[in-house]
Design brief:
- Strands 6-8-9-10-7-11 form a 6-stranded mixed sheet.
- With about 250 residues, the chain is α+β, with helices and mostly antiparallel strands.
């Protein structure tokens, strides 16, 4: 969605009441965090919240002390976190774990296709319209944010085929560039202390191990392209380049 450069029409500091209403709206949409965690993510005092409009669209961006934290793609209340917000609060949105080389496709503007998704022991739920973060098997922090476009019934009938998540923002896109351009590798939680729960069998399949200090000992760095380019070891590509940019 933010693949191309965009212009903004200026930023305005919001009133405390607007900030409070925004947080209450976010709490309903993202109930995973406690009140204390929300206070750490968006402090009631001492942090300036601004709203910025993107020219030529209905998109608005909410920034905290100049760092983009949330955005509303159509100004209809469909709020999504940026990777900056997710790095501060990784539990904000449920995370989809994907095959090690899928991000190569996502950063080109692709949506996430189901063959690239790794399924945990016991399966996973697909809720159409739900916001989800996306990360790679070997890392501990999200690299993309999107909206689920399938449900459990679709997956039961069709299997892990077709497009599963519409990616609305990812690390290294133009919205990320609007911030301080920090990298996940420098954030707390990037290195895994242990394998993702329920995904243990996938590490051996993909030749990955988690080191004693929490660092995966093999696999590409985030955003680094591998030769070959197939997003997935079986079942086809896990992401597909979009024919038309949004």
């Amino acid at each position: 969605m933010f693949k191309k450069p965009f212009k903004t029409s200026g930023s305005n500091v919001v009133k405390k009441s607007v900030k409070r209403n925004l947080v209450n709206t976010l709490k309903k949409k993202y109930p995973n965090l406690s009140d204390e965690e929300w206070s750490e993510l968006i402090p009631a005092k001492g942090a300036e919240l601004t709203i910025t409009k993107v020219q030529g669209s209905h998109t608005v961006i909410y920034s905290l002390d100049g760092q983009p934290f949330f955005f509303d793609a159509d100004n209809r209340g469909e709020l999504y976190p940026t990777v900056y917000a997710m790095w501060k609060a990784p539990r904000l949105a449920e995370t989809i774990i994907v095959q090690p080389n899928v991000f190569t496709f996502l950063e080109r503007g692709a949506d996430l296709f189901l063959p690239g998704v790794l399924t945990p022991t016991g399966g996973m739920k697909w809720e159409k319209g739900a916001p989800r973060s996306v990360t790679l098997l070997q890392y501990g922090l999200p690299l993309a944010v999107g909206e689920v476009i399938v449900d459990d019934q679709y997956v039961a009938q069709n299997g892990m085929k077709g497009k599963g998540v519409r990616i609305v923002h990812h690390y290294k896109d133009k919205l990320w560039e609007m911030g301080n351009r920090s990298h996940p590798q420098n954030q707390k939680g990037w290195k895994l202390g242990q394998a993702w729960a329920g995904y243990e069998e996938h590490y051996a399949t993909h030749g990955l191990t988690v080191g004693e200090e929490g660092e995966s000992t093999s696999g590409p760095a985030a955003g680094e392209e591998e030769e070959g380019g197939d997003a997935g070891t079986s079942g086809g590509d896990g992401a597909q380049d979009k024919g038309k940019e949004e």
